[in-house]
Amino acid sequence: MKLSILFLFVSFISFSQGPDTLQFYFATDEYDSFTMSNEDKARLNNLYKETRILAILGHCDYRGSEDYNLNLSRQRMEHVRRHLKNNGFDVSKSSNEALGESEANSSGLTLAKCRRVDVLFIEPAIEEEEIKEIEELPPPPEPAQPKTGLSKTAIQQFLEDETAEELELDLSLLFVNVSTRVLEESRPEMFRLLEIMQNNPSLNATFHGHVCCQPHPELSEGRARAVALFLREYGISEDRLSYMGHSNNQPKVWPEVTDEDRKQNRRVVVVFTKSDG
């Protein structure tokens, strides 16, 4: 007997996107050096309330004492966190850090760019999907094969080889230009990485971020941090994760002649190690 077909449109929220970052800059006026502008508040309020806030990171320039700058970066971080909470965002699981002037002397950024707060987040994709009631469900598609060396076989061989100390893999984790957001084509690789970390609890991972074109240590580290925070959001212990940035010092493709060359250099590389014992 042929079944009738039922058409429904269902709105749903998913979080298949990679992390992104909003940056908010602060003035130098000593009486108002940790308050966001109304324009910045509006930028935050434009996010969906279901947005996952992964981290709120406060920064400061190097003027003043180290203790003063650490406290000022904390005030900036707490100001942004409080604004998010008061406007209905869930910040209960966010990583909140006051970094003081830790980047100011090594990042190559201007003083104005150092006086900021970074908000790392995953914004939901709200979609409408047409659901049909049909006689027979089609078979699931074959899983796509990784385009790189991120394979279960390579991981298993590494874990079983008692002499192997590290396994370095150049992932297909590529990023939007001047952003910590992964390209659409790289999102499946994020979840392959998550699956490997979930299934192999003895694995640790260090993420190495890279940029194209010109020096940008902060952005390269931000990309590596974004991958680590993505895994933490899905339950991977932060004790198993670390990250660092290499600016544009280790390009995969050189010279950068085409847009594709530059795209390949906006990447994150992972180095796996094994837990002691």
Q: Please indicate the percent range of residues in DSSP E strands (runs of 2 or more).
A: 15-25%
Mean pLDDT: 78
The CATH first-level class of the largest domain comes to: Alpha Beta
Number of domain modules: 2
What name does the CATH topology of the largest domain carry? 60s Ribosomal Protein L30, Chain: A
The share of residues in helices is 25-40%
Largest sheet: 4 strands, mixed
Question: At CATH's second level, what is the architecture of the largest domain?
Answer: 2-Layer Sandwich
Dominant shape: globular
- Look at the helices and sheets and give the structural class: alpha+beta
Radius of gyration: 21 Å
| Largest sheet: spatial strand order | 2-5-3-4
Low-confidence stretches: 1-16, 126-149
Number of helices: 7
> In total, how many beta strands?
10
Task: Give the topology string: H per helix, E per strand.
Answer: EEHEHEHEEHEHEHEHE
Q: What gap, in angstroms, lies between the N and C termini?
A: 60 Å
